[in-house]
Known about the structure:
- The protein has helices at 65-77, 99-115, 121-128, 135-140, 175-181, 193-202, 205-211, 222-237, 259-270; strands at residues 2-18, 24-43, 51-53, 83-88, 143-148, 152-155, 163-168, 213-214, 242-245, 252-256, 275-279.
- It has 282 residues and is an alpha+beta fold.
- The strands form two sheets. Strands 1, 2, 3, 4, 5, 6 and 8 form a seven-stranded mixed β-sheet that branches.
- A hairpin with a 3-residue loop joins strand 5 and strand 6.
- It is globular, with a radius of gyration of 18 Å.
Amino acid sequence: MEISANAKINLTLDILRRREDGYHELQMVMQAVSLADQLTVVPARGPEGTASADLHFLPTGGKNLAQMAAAAFRAATGLGGQVDVTIQKRVPVCAGLAGGSADAAAVLRAMDELTGAGLSPVELAKIGEGVGSDVPFCVLGGTALAEGRGERLTPLPPLPPCHITICKPPFSISTPQLFSRVNVRKIVRRPDTAGTIAALEAGDLAGVARRMYNVFEDVLEPRRMAEIREIESALIDCGALGASMSGSGPSVFGLFQDRRQAQDACERLKKSYRDVFLCQPV
């Protein structure tokens, strides 16, 4: 079976408090986008399933999120055998776009169809909770409010039609390090989550774009913050209604009403960056 694994962006990302279990309580408005990996899932040729990708440094065995998802599906349903998963990567890794989680979610959907299990998206998302915090959203897709660690999802009205330019600078950001720098009591600037939801309900793209923010941006190392801000400024200069960092970064995206402006932003950023994409909400 061949299946797409769509990336996500965070229209908002807020950290409300540190929980007793050591995790942080998050509140995020998340959006699936058309940027996607392509997966092929087939019965395993050997006794154990494998995962292979066109990036040599990704794990190939049970530590790959795609294989973890297959194992979680078998454990939850008692259905399906070992599978080999081939991944054509288009979503950058370690980018704040949930590329690995999207692959895991795609495997869950594929296993459900291949086995005829007939699970609902909500049931598949529940299985995905044990694989990764972003997997439930990647199963459900669309536009949603994510709370808790990201596993509690409330569907929202779709983001109005628009064009999205995504740029990943050539460095990675450690998510644990970012969380370690967060002092919830000292967060000064937060996204207007309620206002973002109201703008979605009104079909107001500009209203959504004005309210986008990611609290992780304020705890970046100064040199990383400067580059993120520079990319955001380039997107705004090209006509983006708003720009923000996605997830724990470093990918930055801008929302555009006009496709030509979004394309111009891509061309401008490609002069300095390799990973630049034009996509749409899905």
